[in-house]
Amino acid sequence: MSLIARHLEAHHIPTLVLGSARDILLAGQPPRACFVDYPLGHATGKPFDRADQADIVRASLEALVTSATPGALQSLPNRWADDVWRTQAGAITGQDTRQPRDESPQFQLPGDRAAALASGALRVG
Amino acid sequence: MAVQYMQAIAARYLSLGYTPYRWFSAQTPPPWSPVTKPLAEMTLGMLSTSGAYALGQCAYHYKDDTSIREIASDTPDAALRFSHITENYLVDARLDPSCVFPLETLRRLVRAGVVGRLASHVLSCMGGVYSQRRVREEVAPAVLTAFQRRHIDAALLVAM
């Protein structure tokens, strides 16, 4: 995402990157960034917690407007309910959790394929 | 203390006998484009790397898929789907997309007057592209073109 942010910014589009991997954000140095210390997959809030989601997105947008130092990373104060997830996220051993590098579209639900065929977004053959 | 993902993932892959993953590490200061409007007057763009697509669109594949999706900003959450090589991170997002694809959250902020308006379409891509060259040469230019077409004033970029 840092590469994309830098490209946009070089072409006159101001950006703010919001993410939950602090070390990756620091390495990539996007022009403006906010860090929320949540498990990956939750950068814009806890599931079904509308107040938390609005709080994080609003704080990030305010940082977009107020950031004045290129490459600075602002940490948001929001906290996950527990720290259990950190053990697995930071484990240095374990299985590869990625899916196989398959070159066919990986639809979430079986009906999605039919909808993509019907719209013409997916063509067979 | 924040999780050290780069260190942990590098060690995990090494223990499995994989080639070390090369993260992007900036060697130059970031470019900078000033914000020229208050938030309440902006047309805002959004990109999420969570692999979101709308019902009727094609899902992503899992081998360096560099394509993007333009998703209409009035798409209901019930029509949002996710496909991503690290779909283990999307268990909650598949129940509540606003965890990582804040379209409904942004609509609420527009209704509350915090944000001026959303672009007619927001963007999505599948963040698991392992070639920095292909991100630079394919993903980033496609995102730029799509944002320029929507005449946005600034963009919120949500990394998964």
Characterise this structure.
The complex is a heterodimer of chains A (125) and B (160). With 125 residues, chain A is an alpha/beta fold. Chain A has five helices and three strands. Chain A is globular, with a radius of gyration of 18 Å. Chain A starts with a helix and ends in a 6-residue tail after the last helix. The model of chain A has no long low-confidence stretch (mean pLDDT 93). With 160 residues, chain B is α/β, with parallel strands linked by helices. Chain B has one domain. In chain B, strands 1, 3, 5, 6 and 7 form a five-stranded mixed β-sheet that branches. A two-stranded antiparallel ribbon of chain B has the order 2-4. The longest helix of chain B has 18 residues, at 132-149. The model of chain B has no long low-confidence stretch (mean pLDDT 94). Chains A and B meet through helix 1, strand 1, helix 2, helix 3 and helix 5 of A and helix 1, strand 1, helix 2, helix 3 and strand 7 of B. Strand 1 (15-19) of chain A pairs parallel with strand 7 (154-158) of chain B, so a sheet runs across the interface.
